[in-house]
Amino acid sequence: MNGVHDVGGMQCFGAVRPEPDEPVFHAEWEGRVLALTLATGALGAWNIDQSRSARESLPPAVYLSSSYYRIWFEALEGLLGRSGLLDGGFAARARTWPEMKSALDASNSFARETDSPPQFAVGDRVRARMIHPAGHTRLPRFVRGQVGTIVLVHGSQVFPDRDAVPIGEPADQTPEWIYAVEFSGTDLWGPDSDPTVTVCVDAWEPYLEAAS
Amino acid sequence: MADDHDHDHSGGSELSEMDARVRALETLLTERGLVDPAALDGIVETYEHEIGPHRGAQVVARAWTDPDFREWLVRDATTAVASMGYGGRAGEHLIALANTPEVHNMVVCTLCSCYPWPVLGLPPVWYKTPAYRAKAVRDPRGVLADFGVTLPDSTRIRVWDSTSEQRYLVVPMRPDDTEGWDAERLATLVTRDSMIGTGLASAPSQETVS
């Protein structure tokens, strides 16, 4: 979905303002929202791609006018409502701190074995497909239709576009090959942009097609 | 309100509203047996005090002093970093990007906030703002200027948009005039921003005395 979260290249947000000696959390509730999100996420009623999709699907005005952890909170309320956790439709038990600690320390790899060989290799020229998926996607708008070069082959991993099914439906974690694709800044932003800039985007194979 | 003096978050009406809403949700979820407040305390404590950019600084300083480790880090950062005891959530697939005089790397997540938690902790607010996410991919030199950093025109800038579960750690260049320094001392020069690519490692004159 072409959401308001996909802001790469927009020019209306002004300068970046670093904050000296920034605290990890700016209010106690921010830490609780992080903790509630991780603790309820561990119950298995939704996956990380569904969680991201929930945040990105908030109404645009809410998204842009909310602080980061407020976005998390608004999305969490939606996830809880749809998950069945609150009405008993999805049975779960609170994770203890030792269980939660183990989960945070664990390496839950997103890699999945596949029998299909990668379609592309380092150095290949590829075009980011001109697509506008109706559901969740991780292909930023600013590279769609642009030609770049494969610079890394990351492996085969869960494909977010299929993983972010509606809450309650079984997720499809059939993997796809994923690559880092490097685009020239002047291709993306025009001849007046900085010629010394390139931008690398991680892209799953279904986002790409061969280019010459 | 007198009560405000007891809290460090008495900023304004929105914070108060959020405080109330979050407390209400935590209470509901606790009563339903879906979260354990002790686990919530543990999570906050972990990300507030245990996991942070001091870990990434140790990794970078070791790469500066140990050529074999540097080679390993650039080839397979997940395994190299795990050998120092760091890994887990949001660091399942780490990639180290070494800066050189020719190429400067900068990391952003234009779609949200992807960031290598096990080595840098939680991202700062500016990293998550539309301002940074919008500008980094189009005008990284402008972003560097916002941070007070200027690079030579001859340096190429490679911006990495973290759109997947790959998480990128920049290995900044080792500052001049640090010959003979050990890794522990060098780590004091490795700033968080230098590991995102919006800054450089500190000069020895800016050494943090701990």
Could you characterize what this model shows?
The complex is a heterodimer of chains A (212) and B (210). With 212 residues, chain A is α+β, with helices and mostly antiparallel strands. In chain A, 30% of the residues lie in helices and 17% in strands. Chain A has two domains: 28-106, no CATH class; 125-210, SH3 type barrels, CATH 2.30.30. Chain A is built from seven helices and five strands. In chain A, strands 4-3-2-1-5 form a five-stranded antiparallel sheet. In chain A, helix 1 packs parallel to helix 4 and helix 2 (48-56) crosses helix 4 (68-83). The model of chain A has no long low-confidence stretch (mean pLDDT 97). Chain B is globular, with a radius of gyration of 20 Å. Chain B contains eleven helices and four strands; from the N terminus they run H-H-H-H-H-E-E-H-H-H-H-E-E-H-H. Chain B is of the alpha/beta class and 210 residues long. At the A-B interface, helix 1, helix 2, helix 4, helix 5 and strand 2 of A face helix 1, helix 2, helix 7, helix 8 and helix 9 of B. Strand 4 (197-204) of chain A pairs parallel with strand 3 (156-161) of chain B, so a sheet runs across the interface.
